[in-house]
Amino acid sequence: MKKVLVLGAGYVSGPLVHYLSEKAGFSLVVADVDADKAAKLAAAHPRVEARRLDLQDESLLSGEIAGADLVVSLVPYTFHPVVARLCIVHRKNMVTTSYVSDAMKALDGAARSAGVTILNEIGLDPGIDHMDAVRIIHDIKDRGGRVDGFTSYCGGLPAPDANTNPFGYKFSWSPIGVLLAGTNPARYLKDGREVSVPAQDLFAHTTAIPIEGLAEFDGYPNRNSLPYIELYDIPTTRTMLRGTLRYKGWCPTLKAIADIGLLGRTEQDFGGLTYRTLLARLIGRSGAEDVRQALADKLGLDAGSSVIERIEWLGLLDEEPLPLAQGSPLDILAGLMIRRLQYREGERDMIVLQHTFEASFPGGRRETIVSSLVDFGVPGGFSSMARTVGYPAATGARLLLEGRIERKGVLIPIHPEIYGPVLDELGTLDIRFKERREES
Q1: Which of 270, 274, 305, 368 has its CA 20 to 30 A from that of 125?
Q2: How far apart are CA 277 and CA 287, in angstroms?
Q3: pLDDT beneath 50, residues of the chain
Q4: Which residues form the catalytic set?
């Protein structure tokens, strides 16, 4: 029986453990620094053991890896290179859902020499986005065409029936990562022209993105899209943009929040402050009696605008004392958001991922291909985010355990022998794309 070591018993581990534990021939060990969390996950499934494991203890980690046939690392990405190095030492294959960092990339040669496969970026974004994109790109090329334009937008959002707050967003985990993503600059290619977006302008740089059967969303660029021209092998493209989707209202409100300074990470003394007096201090109007009007003036908005109303709804104009005596404005904002923007019992989340391709073919024929994935969480079961991250990783792990991935080294799932079987399997789990093709 093949043994899988799953590092991390967090948010996306449930679907992976569920999937692999139901497959004949596999047993699992779930290891986490939180022994209770690991035990709770293991207890729900057959052939699954729980272990407490602190990844700082390399000797213990090494022993666990040595005893496994494959390692799935679902811990923070900073730990992946340590895990990968030990997997190479013990000649064990490894799966992660995280982006390939420079430290991971540097292990490619050693992994190849050891005959080890380290499969990364096999979750949702990155993961399913790569696999569907290259599937269609390869199809265009196989039909003699070329790719002239590619855009991709992805968002994890409340389902329409759970979209019950003014922000159009809810959290199942710490908001810090989502908020920090809004502090990054972006670069992309549009009609042959490179576009750079400074971090402070990110939320003002939006495009309306209609999704069939749903609403019109706001899309904004996500970091640097340019390397994907080479990664996806589409040197002919004149447009390359990967972006994030949000309900209307989120982007202008986050732009205002960023402009105020609430995404700042500098530690401050909050002694004696309320949310209202902190906000007044951030906008340089600590003596202002009408903080709402002062805030509107600072942002160049009407005091009755929807952006100001969202900021007030969140609680940033309340006279409630701050929960921290010291911290950063980001800490205060994140604490409010996790309190006010939560999923209620029985509410569903939703994943929306849409690719748009512009392709040309010999004879002047052109084709627009729109490939969309809309997936909903299951009330009382797994969320859509957990499903769309955990199931691809689980399928990739199964393919490795069954010897169906022969490539060695540090990989991402852009090869037909990986993305084909994974996308097929996701279809059996009701995670599938809908395509629309138009010729001109």
Answers
A1: 368
A2: 9
A3: none
A4: 125
